[in-house]
Amino acid sequence: MRLFVLIFTLLFAPPAVQAATLADYSFDEPGKAEDFRDIIEEMRCLVCQNESLAGSNAELAIDLRNEIYEMMKSGQEKEDIINFMVARYGDFVLYSPPLKPTTYPIWFGPLIVFLVGGVVLFRILKRKSVARETELSAEEEQRLNRLLNQSNDHRDADQ
Questions:
Q1: What are the DSSP calls for 17-81, one per residue?
Q2: What positions belong to coiled-coil segments (predicted)?
Q3: Could you give the CA distance from residue 62 to residue 24 in angstroms, rounded to a whole number?
Q4: Percentage of residues in the chain with pLDDT exceeding 70?
């Protein structure tokens, strides 16, 4: 029974913790609450790097959520807050960074690696097929014929 409770807690604690942290932030306007959720889900935790600010419990993520909350309470708009965060931490803070020269490696890097890998694989396979198709020299062909004749002679003798 204790094992079940432990497993249940481990599996379902993170969403419950996340819900509790988001409940701590209240707004007078329902639209502001929705904007706040959108912002903290669009922003990457700089410590965890694979979690949003909404899902992370790192101290920096909590600080950034509080900062965003205070900025929203002071009347700043969603776009202004996002621009501030990008200016402060760079495009890396966004889960979907904008397409511009400084973010080309993020957007096109995987495609380039995939294409280069495909070209290398194609060349390796082509080289192997060319190596298999090479013709025998006259000396190698004579040796092969002798071996085949010896093999046929042994078969005829066995029958």
A1: HHHHHHHT---SSHHHHHHHHHHHHHBBPTTTSSSBTTT--SHHHHHHHHHHHHHHHTT--HHHH
A2: 130-157
A3: 11
A4: 78
Is residue 159 helix, strand or coil?
coil
Condensed to tens digits (0 to 9), the pLDDT of residues 89-104 reads 888 888 888 888 888 8
What gap in Å lies between CA 132 and CA 93, rounded to an integer? 52
What distance in Å separates the CA atoms of residue 96 and residue 75, rounded to the nearest whole number?
25
- The answer to whether the beta carbons of residues 129 and 121 sit under 8 Å apart is no
